[in-house]
Amino acid sequence: MEIVIGTKRWSTWSLRPWLALKRAGIPFTEILVTLRQGEATSAEIGKISPSKLAPALKDGDLVVWDSLAICEYLAEKYPEAKLWPADPALRALARSAAAEMHSGFQALRGECPMALDEAPRKLELSEGTQKDVRKIVERWEQLLARSGGPFLLGEWSITDAFFTPVASRFRTYGVDLSGDAKAYAERLLTTPEFLEWERDAIAEAKA
Ligand SMILES: N[C@@H](CCC(=O)N[C@@H](CS)C(=O)NCC(=O)O)C(=O)O
Known about the structure:
Strand content: 5-15%
Low-confidence stretches: none
Distance between the termini: 27 Å
Bound molecules: glutathione
CATH architecture of the largest domain: Up-down Bundle
CATH topology of the largest domain: Glutathione S-transferase Yfyf (Class Pi), Chain A, domain 2
Number of domains: 2
């Protein structure tokens, strides 16, 4: 199995399925493409993926593009990895929150890009981004209260992969968190898998 991923310090979309692959213990090789090079990036990714965007997963002659579709494919192909919660109600909540992240929070995404090589600093957030932050924190608190933690739906799931880049954005731009939300964000940023990605991202920036 091969995964096309973009520049590790920036690519939130690539980080999500990469975390799912790692957490599931699935052997894979990475094809790392430099983002933000315009046509050159599209052409490079386009050699494998019709979307010309990272990430894309190649499994034999099958190519799956889009981070959520890749995670769903992995969850179906490796049920023993339990990438979604076993309980149907928790699984429905997990999918709702991952899909909400996948399709929303545009203000936060636009204003606070992931930048794993940058030192944390305090950013004055726009009203739109503050609204996104409040909604995310509320969602985290609701789900942690329902599941009992330590991750959003109990055990680590794809939903946590979707919120790991968010935790990184909160850290980089000095978003103040407290209580369960703060502990959860810290938990996401200290998993061995995220730390491995972060090490690569920092090394990549220095290369
Ligand atoms: N909805 C897609 C979004 C993919 C996407 O926008 N990828 C960005 C990287 S994070 C990309 O390839 N951009 C090209 C570039 O930056 O040059 C997904 O979830 O996979």
